[in-house]
Amino acid sequence: MSAIDQALTMLDGCGPEFGGGLSNHGPMAAEALVRLGRPELVEGWVARYRIRLGDRPSSISTIDRADWQEALGDLRRVTDWEVFFARELDGAPWAEVLERWVPRLAPGIMAGATHGLIRTAHAVRSLAEGETSERRTEFAAGLSYWAARYQELPGVPGPALPRLPSQAIDAVPVLPHSLRTPNPGTIFRAVADLDGFEPFAGAVDLAAPGDDLDGFISDLTVTMARRYLQNAGSAAIAFVHTVTAPSALRMIAPFVTPGTARLAARYAWQACAAIHSRSSKPVPVVLPDVLPAREDLIDRAVFSMDEHAIKFTEACLREYVLHPDPAFLAGPADLSARFGRRVRDTP
Fold it and tell me: Can you say how many angstroms the Cα of residue 40 is from the centroid of all Cα atoms in its chain?
């Protein structure tokens, strides 16, 4: 059995969240470790991480194709969603299911602090290399979490000329500190502050992809990697997702139509803009003269044991190949040092 299939077997039966709204990162980080070239570490890491997790909730009632909208955004129905998507996969190839559901779920791309998208993308990347029952089940789980935590942000995409995120980010209205809920606890609760902030509704149209979707995603990830460095204090984890979410979209894009990918990119930009608007508190950044090499960054992430550091490092290294900006190296180095060693060895 492959490392990822072993990890998914070990994590089977676990719920999608723990600790009052924290996303289960187990499947995503395990897959990222494999992509970082450390499959031999996956089983031990998962064994330690799994201790945090609770059981998957019980099913409530069947979700039918005719009324699936009623169950959107209801985390209590996550197991019902898993049963639903298992049926979808019984009736069609996984890529067809992906193409059918990404346009439906894209407006709620903030789901679980964007982890619905990210978890689905990691599953897609594994499925693309080979179908197994474990990977199909994880693909259904990713879509289910996306649907169950579905969260729309203010603003619906309208006609917009192509414009890069780097050209638009400074025009995003920033939520005044006086309107920010103190200690919201989770990213998705934090961005809910924007529901009452009328100026943000137009942010979705400030940037839009043209024909070069890859270039748009690269520009978005590098723009937000730099914003991560400017906000790498209390808002560090929030800004991690402004890189990992659009980078996850890159993993999905080859398996959906161009129109679906461009629509999802509009909403991925909106999610990044929302985190920026709600959490931005920038400080000056001075990059070190010498940045760590790839293997050094991987070693730091692995040593940290932190799920965010592992996923952030994998995404940034992948993005760096396409757009070699130093922020993609400096960001993971900072995060591995800042949030490391939170998962401890057990006796």
Answer: 24
66-107 pLDDT, tens digit per residue, is 999 999 999 999 999 999 999 999 999 999 999 999 999 999
Write the pLDDT tens digit of every residue in 17-50. 999 999 999 999 999 999 999 999 999 999 999 9
User: Dmax of the chain from CA atoms?
Assistant: 58
Select from 225, 179, 227, 229 the least CA-distant residue to 200: 179
Is 325:341 a contact under the CB 8 Å cutoff? no
- Show the tokens assigned to 317: 């290294």
Query: Cα(330)–Cα(328) distance, rounded to whole angstroms?
Result: 6
Check residue 236 and report its DSSP letter: H
Question: Angle at Cα 307 formed by Cα 85 and Cα 5, nearest 5°?
Answer: 45
- What is the DSSP code string of 77-122? GHHHHHHHHHHHHHHS-HHHHHHHHHHHHGGGBTTTTTHHHHHHHH
Question: Residue 340: which of 236, 231, 209, 251 has the closest Cα?
Answer: 236
pTM of the complete model:
0.96
